[in-house]
Amino acid sequence: MAEILQSFGINAAFLAVQAVGFLILVAILSKFAFGPIYKMLEQRQSTIRGNLDEAESRRDEMVNLQKEYETRLALIEDEARDKIQGAIKEAQSARDEIIEKAREESTRIAQRGVEELAAERAKAMAEMRNEIAEMAIAAATQAVRGNLNAGNHSALIEQAIASVGASGNGSTPAAGSLN
After folding, report:
1. 67-108, pLDDT tens digit by residue?
2. Whole-number CA gyration radius for the chain
3. How far apart are CA 135 and CA 163, in angstroms?
4. Which of 23, 18, 24 is nearest to 5 (CA)?
5. Which of 178, 122, 130 is nearest to 155 (CA)?
6. Handedness of CA 163, 164, 165, 166 (dihedral sign)
7. CA 177 to CA 118: how far, in whole Å?
8. Please, are residues 166 and 130 in contact by the beta-carbon 8 Å criterion?
9. How far is 100 from 107, CA to CA, in rounded Å?
């Protein structure tokens, strides 16, 4: 082997010294340089792994909070919907109550109007009866007082008819107005 190395121009002793020096350098570097570098890489890897685990944990926590938020939001929406429906039902009942009261009031007003109309009619009929009775008494009084001939009798009838027509004005014939 020494002959092959010499053919290339390599000194075997010098190569052996360089190999031993290289091995010593590797041993020194592994003890003083590679160890701390390896430890630093492991720390870095551990830190990165810890950061990734923490990020994963925070992501899971965020997903859980998002689900909880969505659940709360759904509950709030349901509650709001229930309150709105309750308010609508209350408004409808209030509307129905107001309509019913208005109907009752309109019925009461209409009934009162009918009763007042009937009372006015009865009053008008009573006044008309009284006026007719007064006219009959006035006519009878005139007939008894005076001579009732055919001309006076016709005039008395026409006056009674005229006074019935004028009774809407509130005028009544005076007794003895024929004479």
Report:
1. 999 999 999 999 999 999 999 999 999 999 999 999 999 999
2. 65
3. 8
4. 18
5. 178
6. positive
7. 35
8. no
9. 10
Name the amino acid, one letter, at 136.
A
100-106 contacts at long range (C-beta below 8 A, 24 or more positions apart)? none
Q: Residue written as tokens 């509307």? A: 95
- What torsion, rounded to 10 degrees, do the Cα atoms 111, 112, 113, 119 define? 110
Q: How far, in Å, CA of 167 to CA of 175, rounded? A: 15
> What per-residue string of b and e applies to 118-127 under the rule 16 or more CB within 10 Å gives b?
eeeeeeeeee
What is the C-alpha to C-alpha distance for residues 174 and 179, in angstroms, rounded to an integer?
11
pLDDT tens per residue, range 98-133: 999 999 999 999 999 999 999 999 999 999 888 888
Task: Look up residue 45 and give its two tokens.
Answer: 């890897």
Dig out the tokens for 15 from the structure.
């190569």
Task: Tell me how crowded residue 32 is: count the other CB atoms within 10 A of its CB.
Answer: 10
